[in-house]
Amino acid sequence: MKKLIPFILLAFISVNCLSQQNQLWRGFFSYTEIKDLSQSVDKVYAAPENTVFSKNTITNELKTVNSIDGFKADVVSAVHYSESFRKIVVGNQNGLLLVVNETDGSVLNVIDILNKPSIPPNKKKINHIYEHEGKVYLSCDFGICVFDLATSQFGDTYFIGPAGEEVQVFQTTVFNGFIYAVTQLNGIRRAELSNPNLVDFSQWSTFDPGYWSGIVTFQNQLVVSSSNNRVYKHAAGAFQEIANVGQAIVDLRAYDNRLVFTSANNVYVYDNQLLQLSHITQIPDVASVFTCATAIGDKIFIGTADKGLHQTTIGNTTLFENCTPNGPARNKLFRIKKSDNFLWAVYGGYSKQYNPWEYCCGGTPSEYEISKFSDQSGWNDTPYADLLGAKAISNITINPNNPNQIFFGSFFSGLLKTNNGTPEILYNSANSILEDLIPNVSLVNSSAFDKQESIWITNSRVSKGLKVFKKDGQWLSYDFNNVTTNPVSDSYSSIAIDKNGTKWIGSYRNGVIAFNERYNNKFILIKTGADTGNLPNNDVRCVAIDNRNQLWIGTFEGLRVLPGVDRFLYDTSLETNPIIILDDNLAQELFYQQSIMDIVVDGANNKWVAIDGAGAFLVSPNGQETLYHFTKANSPLPSDNVLDIEIDGVTGEVFFATDKGLVSFQGIATKPAEDLSQVYVYPNPVRPGYEGTVKISGLIDNANIKITDIEGNLVYETTSEGGTIEWDTKAFGKHKVASGVYMIFISADDGVETKVKKVMIIR
Question: PorZ N-terminal beta-propeller domain spans which residues (predicted)?
Answer without folding.
Answer: 44-205
